[in-house]
Amino acid sequence: MTEFVLCRKDDDLQLAAALADEIWHEHFPGIISLAQTDYMVGKFQSFESMKEQVENENYSYYLITVDDEAIGYFAIAPKSDGTMFLSKLYIRREHRGNHYSTAAFGFICDKARELGLGSVWLTVNKNNDRAIAAYEAFGMKVARTQQTDIGDGFIMDDYVYELKL
After folding, report:
1. What distance, in Å, lies between the first and last C-alpha atoms of the chain?
2. pLDDT (0 to 100) of residue 143
3. Running DSSP on this structure, what letter comes out for residue 94?
4. What are the CB-based long-range contacts (under 8 Å, 24+) for 139-142?
5. pLDDT score, position 104
6. Domain holding 39: CATH number?
7. CB under 8 Å to 68, separation ≥6 — which residues?
8. 93-131: string of b/e by CB count within 10 Å (b at 16+)?
9. 0.85 exceeded by pTM
10. Helix 10-27 vs helix 47-56: angle between axes, to the nearest 10 degrees?
11. Where are the alpha helices (DSSP H) in 34-149?
């Protein structure tokens, strides 16, 4: 049975950070450099960064569990402009293709609707073809492109996808 477990304790966030490190290092070769992957995991997906996001930036992290095994995670943050930001949605390689991300996306849209928000949006690397195909299958559309300097000489070159609710 698939469940979405809100990370309420440090142990939960530490598990999400461990999943991030594993999944990002498996998924991103060929999309971004190893140096950029290491930098982004450290800056945005470490336990300390996740804790900061939860405590000070209104983020909620969830573990995606199947039969009590954590197989992925996602993070969402409602924004003051009436939208829900889907910050992360990652599934371990061996569990991809089983519609867990579809179920998670449905859960995220339901959360946004409960809060009276008008859309869900995210950023995705322009070369992340597998994720782009999934987001388009969810009905999301490109709203714009953006390049963001994230420090240490790294640039994120992204599409911004959005689904109006």
Report:
1. 27
2. 98
3. G
4. 139/163
5. 98
6. 3.40.630.30
7. none
8. eeebeeebbeebbebbbebbeeeebebbbbbbeeebeeb
9. yes
10. 120
11. 34-44, 47-56, 100-114, 129-137
Helix (H, G, I), strand (E, B) or coil at 57: coil
31-57 CB burial, b ≥16 within 10 A, e <16: ebeeebbebbbeebbbbebbbebbeee
Domain that holds residue 17: 2-164
Question: Rounded to 5 degrees, what are φ and ψ at 115?
Answer: -90, 0
Tokens, residue 120: 């869900």
Domain count, the chain: 1
Compute how many other C-beta atoms are within 10 angstroms of the C-beta atom of residue 90.
23
Can you give the pLDDT of all 165 residues of the chain as single tens digits?
999 999 999 999 999 999 999 999 999 989 999 999 999 999 999 999 999 999 999 999 999 999 999 999 999 999 999 999 999 999 999 999 999 999 999 999 999 999 999 999 999 999 999 999 999 999 999 999 999 999 999 999 999 999 999
Residues 6+ apart with CB under 8 A from 10: 47, 51
In which residue are the tokens 């950029």 written? 36
One-letter amino acid for residue 110 of the chain:
D
